Input
Amino acid sequence: MLASRNRDTNSLLKSEKKSLLRFLALYTSLVILLITLLSIFYYQSQEKLMFSNQRAELSKYAYIQTKRLKVLHYFFPERTTYPRDPRFKSAIYDIEYKKIFSLLENENIHFNEEIYRAGNYIHFVKLLDTYYLGTKYLIIEVPEDMAWKKEAWKQIAIGSVLAFILFMVFGLILARLFLKPMRDSIVLLDRFIKDTTHELNTPLSAILTNIEMMDTDVMAEKNKKKLNRINIAAKTVSQLYKDLTYLTLKQEQKDHKEEIELQGLIRDRIEYFTALANTKQLYFELDTENVIIHADKQKITRVIDNLLSNAIKYNKRGGTISIKLRIGSLEVSDTGVGIDEEKIPFIFDRYMRFNQSEGGFGVGLSIVKKILDEYHIKIEVYSTINKGTKMVLTW
Output
């Protein structure tokens, strides 16, 4: 029971992980965008609050300085010293924006703004109704207190981290809830496949055994054709049965490595599929060399069988299957329907099929990829719609 659960978990892992990663990537991007926007809004609100606080204080300074300018205006020229204050610096400009006198550290004046940042200083612009000493614009300058900015960034950092953690925990819970129907469906499908595999064993073995025992020499020609069709159908089901058996049982068995003569194995498997290929009038083109690899023969047979089965299944009537074997590489090409370019990265996913018009569970190529990964064999797929597909194995 534990092994069965482990296999269920493994079968779910890849598809569920991909879906989860896609969801989390999109969700994380949206969370980061939301947190960034909230951080900008918070920073701007703190900046406005700082300006609001500064406005009240600088208005008081402007009032004080205006009173001093009034005194200086009425006692001019007896008094000629411009009033100064340790709390702020100031400047006066006339109605044409010409400087009358200035103590400012930053001379970048925005006459159309009441309060603004000028470098590391805050400027407050006061318009005078009475032109003391010809002054229309009184500018008050104080150094900007950076404490508010440090506090704002501290709050943003703490809030962003806490919000990100909270959102991600919520996202994981949400993702699990969304993925649960898919997980349940895959578990149900896996159980169905296992039950189907178990039920196929006895009748399929009986059919294949009885076909082999029949004496075709005494059969009428029409009965031979019927038997051939039964043989083809049985071998098709047998191919599916072997895939399902490997998927549910044999993939966890211990690996039995041995020397495999690939040229001979490929010829044996072609002979096995000849009857099936003849139904579509397919022609095999062989260009093989004597190549030996060390691997589990049953697993390599599964790889070759699935490559040949797909080349037959998705080929056009009267098409060709080309097999090229060299030291370090194996190519299996067909002249079939081809695969959409956007689907190629997903053809090794379990339950993925080339097209929906063909039967099968879509487990063959997932088995192929799993076995090849186990032996560090690279597989590449080249395909063009209505021209064919080429599978290239390199090691």
